[in-house]
Automatic annotation (TrEMBL):
The lineage of its organism: Bacteria, Pseudomonadati, Bacteroidota, Flavobacteriia, Flavobacteriales. Keywords: Hydrolase. The keyword Magnesium does not apply. This is Rhamnogalacturonyl hydrolase YesR. InterPro entries: 6-hairpin_glycosidase_sf (IPR008928), 6hp_glycosidase-like_sf (IPR012341), Glyco_hydro_88 (IPR010905), PolySaccharide_Degr_Enz (IPR052043). It comes from the Bacteria. Coiled coil: none annotated. It comes from Arenibacter palladensis. It holds the Pfam family Glyco_hydro_88. GO terms for molecular function: hydrolase activity. GO terms for biological process: carbohydrate metabolic process.
Length: 499
């Protein structure tokens, strides 16, 4: 499916061309000396089930679908034995349940390599299994098999695209002399097509991180990546994407959480016709009091996915009413910051809260406040909103752990969430830079930045991200964590705002 038309409709904005290094080495060079991580592609051997006719795979990329008890053989060229080895596959079908994949060598004894446990995942998210290097000789001889043990179909991306270098999403081995990546690895990966996510809040977070790398750090690669990402979602001026159940949603708005990408779109294409559709959608979602929400529940996401893009569009259109309306969205959400807490949701019909002190919810609130206030600083100042923002930041700081991160639920003893931590810290740095917070608050964000660097994969992806909020409280209160480019978008915003 040809999508690469968006660049033709956008005027150059200081666009600098560059080439992203391809980490996948040809078979003849795998055995050579190498200094960094490489990806070794895997051939997929086996039959694939079909997807329902009313569903669609992102960008027309090729999926392989396993039904329960199906097996597939994965084979590569010869692997070296002196490396850390990780098996990677990426989700192609949206998931609202769990897939357990058994990974083994199809030798006589069916040598077990481990289990891939994939829960409630969006598409375009990679999952990895570390493989003991002692098994390399067997893998070189037999390949590996993957068997689906659970009761629902599971789909992963299969063949490389003929139009886009998407080899990070197709099955591969990641080989590296080190278990950890560096900040340059992170930036190299992030400022490329490899950081693309499902359209909506996930991709919007990535685009926002890329924009800040460009606007604050002068990274021309980031601007190029933005336009390459939009190439995947637009055919000319027509938006083509799927929702969280693989249903086509072309030229439609899919709830308030889906409107964050339009902040970045408005910056580089302020006259794009889809922006009028966004405004119409916000109007249709507006409650009697003017709050834009999907229902009676007051949500933290709306601070970042509604107020902030509304401010950006209002600014580029020079629309005073839209800018004022953006600030009002924050005031409607004051109720989320209360009594030392940061809440994801306030159920106005019941007068109750849920997801109290969930780290990524705190990030949505604080980042939405910080980005909206920053966007409109030169035009509208509202001391009441600034004071509420500082109150929220103070609440978060009180729950920061000694290691510099925030746990998935900030006031509980569960695993840290790198995405929420990065988002909270980015909001703090924006607040300091704009004069909304004391300069002493910088130390809390810097402590987080130092800690986050311990959670990078050898090729620069961010680990230990709380999974998409599809599995309810039970999943979020546990220690299940994933790799996610969405989390990298929040980390990029933190990086971009550092001095």
């Amino acid at each position: 499916m040809k999508r690469r038309k968006f660049l033709e409709t956008v005027p150059p904005v200081g666009l600098g061309l560059f080439v992203v290094p391809n980490l996948t080495l040809c078979s003849s060079s795998i055995q050579e000396k190498w200094n960094g991580a490489i990806r070794v592609p895997l051939s997929v051997i086996g039959s694939s089930a079909k997807i329902p006719s009313d569903k669609r795979i992102a960008f027309g990329w090729s999926p392989h679908v396993l039904n329960p008890d199906d097996e597939v053989l994965l084979k590569s060229k010869q692997l070296p034995r002196d490396a850390y080895v990780f098996l990677r596959i990426s989700v192609a079908l949206e998931m609202w349940d769990q897939a357990i994949l058994q990974v083994f060598v199809p030798d006589e004894g069916e040598t077990q390599l481990g289990i891939l446990d994939i829960r409630h995942s969006s598409v375009l998210v990679p999952y990895e299994l570390k493989i003991d290097s002692k098994h390399i000789s067997l893998i070189n001889k037999y390949g590996i098999k993957v068997k689906l043990l659970t009761s629902k179909p599971f789909g992963f991306f299969n063949q490389p695209s003929t139009e886009v270098g998407n080899n990070v999403f197709t099955p591969h081995f990641l080989l590296s002399p080190s278990e950890k990546g560096t900040v340059p690895d992170f930036l190299n990966f992030f400022m490329s097509i490899d950081s693309v996510q499902a359209f909506g809040w996930r991709e919007g977070t990535v685009l926002d991180g890329l924009w800040q790398l460009y606007s604050l750090k002068g990274e021309e690669k980031a601007l190029t990546a933005i336009k390459e990402h939009f190439d995947l979602f637009f055919e000319g001026e027509n938006l083509k994407y799927e929702n969280s159940r693989n249903d086509p949603r072309d030229n439609k708005i899919d709830g308030i959480e889906s409107t964050i990408p339009y902040a970045t779109l408005a910056r580089i294409h302020p006259d794009h016709p889809i922006l009028k559709t966004v405004i119409e959608a916000w109007d249709s979602y507006a409650q009697e009091n003017g709050m834009v929400t999907d229902g009676p529940t007051v949500t933290a996401e709306g601070c970042y996915t509604v107020a902030y893009p509304m401010a950006v569009i209002g600014k580029v259109w020079n629309d005073p009413a839209l800018k004022k309306r953006a600030l009002e969205q924050l005031k409607h959400r004051f109720v989320l910051i209360e009594n030392g807490n940061l809440n994801l949701r306030y159920h106005s019909d019941k007068g109750s809260y849920s997801y109290k002190n969930w780290a990524r919810g705190a990030a949505w609130t604080l980042l939405g406040f910080a980005r909206t206030l920053s966007e409109l600083k030169g035009e509208i100042q509202d001391r009441e909103i600034i004071n509420k923002f500082k109150e929220g930041v103070d609440n978060a700081i009180s729950m920061q752990k000694e290691n510099g991160l925030w746990n998935g639920f900030m006031d509980a003893e569960n695993a840290p969430d790198t995405s929420g931590s990065a988002g909270i810290s980015a909001a703090i740095l924006i607040g300091v830079k704009e004069g909304f917070l004391p300069t002493t608050y910088r130390q809390y964000a810097e402590k987080c930045w130092t800690a986050l660097q311990n959670y990078l994969t050898p090729d620069g992806l961010l680990k230990e991200v709380s999974q998409d909020n599809r599995g309810g409280l039970q999943l979020q209160q546990g220690n299940y964590r994933v790799i996610a480019q969405m989390g990298m978008g929040l980390m990029a915003q933190l990086y971009a705002n550092r001095e």
